[in-house]
User: Fold these one by one.
Assistant:
Number 1:
Amino acid sequence: MILLTCPNCGTRNVSEFRYGGEITKRPNPNTATQAEWANYLYVRKNVLGVMPEWWCHQSGCGQWLIAERHTKTHEVLKTYVWEARPQE
Amino acid sequence: MAIQAAVGRLPETPSQVINREKIVDFVFDGKTYTAYEGDTIASALVAAGVMTFSRSFKYHRRRGLLCAAGACPNCLVQVGDEANVRSCTTPVQAGMKVEAQNAMPSLDVDVMSATQLVDSFLPAGFYYKAFIRPQALWPTYERFLRQAAGLGKIDPDSEPGYFDKIYKHVDVAVIGGGPAGLRAALAAAKSGARVILMDDQSSPGGHLRYRMDEIDGLPAYEYVAKMAAELVGFSNVEILTNTTAVGRYDRNWVGAVTGNRLIKLRTKALIVATGAYEIPLLFENNDLPGIMLGSAVQRMIHLWGVVPGARAVVVSANRRGLQAALDLIAAGVHIEALAEMREEPDADLIRKLSAEHVMIFKRTTIKRAWGIGKVQGVSLESLHSGQIHEFPCDLLLVSTGYTPANQLLFQAGGKLRWNEQIHEFTLDMLPSDVFAAGEAAATHLLEDIEREGELAGLQAAQFAGFGGKIEKVTFLAAKVEERRAERIPWTQIHIAEDEAKKDFVCICEDVTRKEIKQSIQEGFDSVELLKRYSTVSMGPCQGKMCNINAIHVCAHYNQKTVAETGNTTSRPPVTPVTMGALGGRLMEPVRVSPMHDWHVKHGAVMMNAGLWKRPDHYGDPSAEVRAVRERVGLIDVTPLGKFHLRGPGVPGLLERVYTNRWQKLDVGRVRYGLMVTEEGVVLDDGVTARLDDDFYYMTATSSGASGIFENMEWNLQSGWSYDVHLLNVTDLRAAMNLAGPRSRDVLAKIIQGVDLSNAAFPYMSVRQATIAGIPVLLLRIGFTGELSYEIHTPSGYGLHIWEALLKAGEEFGITPFGVEAQRILRLEKGHIIVSQDTDGLTNPFEAGMEWAVKLDKQDFTGKASLLMANQKGVTKKLVGFEMPDGTIPEEANQIVRPGNGPIGLEIIGRITSVRRSPTLKKVIGLCWLPTEMSEPGQEFTIRVRGQMKTGRVVPLPFYDPDGLKLNS
Ligand SMILES: [Zn+2]
């Protein structure tokens, strides 16, 4: 079982967290084509490597956080809240 | 009943673990046996001369004690209601009732053993071939197979056992308490790390516990006991015996089992020092009782003082085989002959054996054993000349090789590679927080084992942040590398060229060398395929005994090398774990409302709603419905999700999470809200009330509550910038619904601070008031279709308010009602229940809720999906129906029409809700129909318990279509 570090509570078993999926970019719903919207809903990059993803500290403080996890080794490189995300 | 005395014990020695002053009686297959405290079931039986412990899986051959280490399947017994107990590692307890398994009717007379006379009856891959046709006979086959192939019996009436779990957190965990593990634990402990050491035996020491040879002037068992004693002195070390680590998962999460307890361990660094399994040799009749592994014989002699024979033949391929022969001599056993597979065995030990006049055959193996029911003699074969020598014996000791117990290392991601230098599989590419030492890493010489242990201990401590001894680590690491390069094989495997009939590769599943050959000829020539087809290594030992032999046989018949053949995947658990240990204690959390005890006391039949306990009804749901329609009723709705939303950003958040409009909700008003997922699927519904300028109160369905809360939090925490503070008050507030034409009259008697008149407090509005000084929130909403008030109050006052309402309602005939009456009431009113009437694909248009979707809003969760769905139009609809003939279909019954299907029918819809309405006196429901069949008046066919019944679409709602009651 992997470990995740909640910015509020510290390092905890992943079983305390709810998975929120890969971080995706939401198209404007008023202008998105069907293909763009379907892509947003159903297509994931599923990278072999480090992926930023949403986790919610469900059984803890309720914080939503972003974890950068290596999808093969399950190593979690870092976790942070949305406001502290690296700027693109 | 014959009393069997504990016979055949050696004189007492300090290595023995039995207490001869304490005598324990137990029963095996109806006979009473006597054991000493400290005996295992197996040691006591061997002492009493028992040789057959079980009948084999397929051929029902007699099987005796083989490994005495808890690895092989031979000594599995039934103890009371527990099947598959390893008798060689299970201590005897007074009064224990032990039975042999898989014997019909008994160990000595087994009718099924005739199967071995008819080989073709159970060919290789018999799971996939035999018993298939004719299909009609399958029930008979199944009954036969279940009886013939079972391992023990399950008693469905047995009392559930007590199981629990414990969590542990350490810096360094050492799995295995042999010389490698002890050295590792000592090194890590001295570095200051918090250490846990787990060993699956009753005390640490590993194979040194049953070895007599001298180390540093002490017998091995004393030498290792000293090491263990030193470890006990450390306050930062915890030693767990009788504890088996069964799995290693991500980030060194280790599962271990001790008795009825599951240990969940998190460790910064993990040291695997789990030793090795001694493995059997392949030869004809290699499964006869009386054939034992060298380590098993040594355990019997030195731990329990039991000699398993009088005249022995020894087959050896390493130092320990020769030492075992010396142990036999010391125990008074006559050695008829010793076959040594190596050309140049260890000169020092050969000298000692020669001094005892042992007949030694070098470069010689065993060709076959023979005997009726037990080993009575063997044929040895020279590997040089093929010359055969025959000897009688009642014990055959086989000590010809090892396979590392490296499953945890494999699970950690290590890569297995065949090492031709030492004839064993070794692992590399371990993750940086996992270390291997000793025999688990295929190192067998004691001084090397101890050095590897010390190195692993220092490295693991260093990894966990307790470093410092850099020079020592560098020095030891170099030495370990050097010594590993110099290792010699301790394992010899010889595959004969002949067509031997009964040399068992896999004793769990009764797979012979011939059957493996046959499987390969049938095309199952890779190890993974071979394993699945022949079932080799898929039995209780999970390959511990057979895997290496199977790989060699596979390589042999494929004319490939072992390296080319490869190995199979090892998954957790390492050893079988009882379901009880995995299940643990039955700890199902239960949620109850503050009125729960009242419900129970007043005869409520309770039901589960998720974790909540709710009153289903109080005796007569129809009467409860009538009470609400005609007078007044009261239902506990505490499980509703309840949220406080405060801040100027609330309307914006509501606009996002709901599909309808929220910018213009006046203070004091309530609105119904519908939520969909980003895919446009109906997710939840509820109401939100505006209590004050910046203060809103939201309810959600009971089952949706926590998910909805998290979703809203995500909206607040993922950059949408709403200025909102959200609080989940589900558990802080009790809620009840007072419903029926007299509900206003009831409330009027006890409420203060609110004008209840229809004009002042109309439908879909909210008021704050007090009842006997207690603050309550009143929401005038109506799931039931009647005039009704949902009353929310701090949960501590819930029962008080509940009772006050019932008392006030007495004169109006108030009746408490449960979930069943509420379901009927809402169905009469045509209200849907999300996830009962909708499914994981339903959009609001199909569910007839287009009125709750405002597509011209700037944005909301699911907007684009609903735009597209709206454009596409609906192909199916949720509609109301009635049953003209009064049949009550079941929920989930299918709506069909003639077409292409298994019975000439096509499924075109289904029933989602149905009840007999006590109000309307007819059967009504909700169902899914294709759009073209969904107009009121259209009829359709429902398959109800195999019969075709007709339903008719009717407009919704069934009851009070103009909403006069709600607005009254
Ligand atoms: Zn937290």
Number 2:
Amino acid sequence: MSEFQGCPGSRMMDLRHNDEAREDVTGAPVGAVASELRQWPIQLHLVSPQAPYFQGADVLLAADCTAYAVGGFHKDYLKGKSLAIACPKLDEGQDIYLEKLKTLIDEGRINTLTVLTMQVPCCRGLVNLATRAVSDSGRKVPLKSVVVDLQGEVLSEEWL
Amino acid sequence: MTTYLNSPVKEVIDHFPEVGEILADYQVGCVTCGVGTCLLKDIIEIHHLSAEDEQAAMGRIAKVVSGDGVTTATERVAPELAEPGEATASASADRPGAAPAGRVKAAPRYSPPMQQLVDEHLLIKRWLALIPEVLESIDVQAAEDRQLILDGVDFIRSYADRFHHAKEEDILFKYFDETQAIIQAMLTDHDKARAHARGAADAVESRDKDAIAEHLSAYRALLGEHIKKEDEILYPWMDRDLTTSQVGELFRRFAEVDKTSGIDVGDKYSRFVTRAEEIVGKRRERIQ
Ligand SMILES: [Fe+2]
Ligand SMILES: [Fe+2]
């Protein structure tokens, strides 16, 4: 009987070694879209800020819905970045989120933090959370906010 | 028209002064640039006009240089340079962050490392603003006045040059093709600024009031224009080109310079500028 390894949905997996293999997919037949995801898990409650793929990384903090709204999510936003997803409206434990983001900045020593949110007002909460995490951290890090509409069109993209 | 698009802007303006006026209408201030080696086509790109303004400006320039108001299809080097009203692909759709139509542009929002450079300019500009009054009241025979000039020259050399210009030259410009005319123009300005600092220091040594005034006034005019070009044109253009990852890297490298330069930015040199402002303020009160 195999050793119990916890919930498979939250088991950490580093998929970055697939980067090279993915190069081949670029030449794949039209219609095949390569995933740019290079880690698991991705939900902010589940990720570990100490995970190797966060060290010095450009991190994308995406509101859950953005991946469905933005057609080119992988190519335009996820490529080259490490990911955390969250919903500022429905998720519980926002204070835990704040601490986790601070740890990402201070201990993960991330390079940049990009917050991708929807135009809906409640999404603003995620930008506020990230802004607070940056200002409460010992380290300073460039923070960018990208807001998209329901069709995934960019409404604003600015450094905060 | 193609010939002119590939010509240095100064040459084009020398031939057709009206082109300078047209550019000025679109807040493109190349007429006053001391270098003017940027190509006309690059100027249009660097200033990031809206697609509509770009077309309108190019249409007006084409009329001036062709003399008859007609440009042939072969003369149009790019679709976005076509005459106003001509059917072309939307340039703004391909250019994220393109300025909306209209001539009034909002103040650019810089990336954090670029904002740092802009903030450093603020301290430099405070010293530049003081120079005319410092020169007016200077007595080269008074040790105190000579010291004020020497401290100002130290500010120019240590803060504006070794600290700020070094961030630009040793770090920022390396992310771009440094042979580009606009970067070459910035480097030429830095060299000229160094020469004026040297000239001013020598003039203090020889107690030559006219030479002090000549070098510091020239420095003030040069750096004032230089900072304006960087704030309004160079940095926004660079920001549009840098990747998110490069912005993070620049931010970290600038922070390392701040830490290792040995210059307490927030302290020593802002204290000097504040002190110089107080001295000038007191002299102003005495005169009134
Ligand atoms: Fe400069
Ligand atoms: Fe500068």
